[in-house]
Amino acid sequence: MKLSREQLSILLIQIRDDSDTRIEELASFSHFCGIALEQIRVLNVFDTPKCGDFSLDNIDAVLVGGSSEASVLEPERYSFVSEIQQLLLRCIAQRLPTFASCFGFQLAVLALGGKIVHQKRDFEMGTLAISLTEQAEEDLLFASLPNPFMAVSVHRYSALSLPEGCVSLAYTKHCVHALKVSSAPFWASQFHPEVNRSILVQRLSQFREHYTQGDNHLQQVLSTAQETPHSNGLLQAFINKVVIG
Q1: Is the CB of residue 124 less than 8 Å from the CB of residue 153?
Q2: 239 vs 234: CA distance, rounded Å
């Protein structure tokens, strides 16, 4: 039976330690998905690091957000890194609709046997023009995007190629930016579909010491930031076309 939007129950996997960012990220996913806050159940792995066997019963879709406080390449320090990978593999096995962004994208690549590299210099930060692959023309979500499209991307860790069993959907000259698992309704993007220009300004201002090289660098990034309506529309499309449709 087809579910209505109001009936949906969504799981958001958060990897946020800062309380203000937890609230902002939840609100952003709610807004861009077009789903009420009360319909989103939050699993924050800083609070619940042992989450690999977290129950997915009565969950209609899964979202995974980013992180400014953890590294996917330090599982010995952040035990939840391997736990979330187990959880994502269960989502794929159960064909549970999933959309993972940024940190979630990196976790998905690792879970599927791919490789993530740490870019110490010249990493992407701000709003970027992202190109579509030929495969994106046939994708349920990405086919409607212009080529290129603008999106928010702030990350020091990247996938230079994808693991087997994945379709590449978007890229920049630096890295892969979006994938679809061939066997499941599972999408992931290195860019942030849940972040627009105003949220980017807020986050970079908050985490300036982590991502920028001083106030001049921060102002340069913020002054060139653009609106990102097409990438922000992906989450609504995910709910409409995949979860409901």
Answers
A1: yes
A2: 9
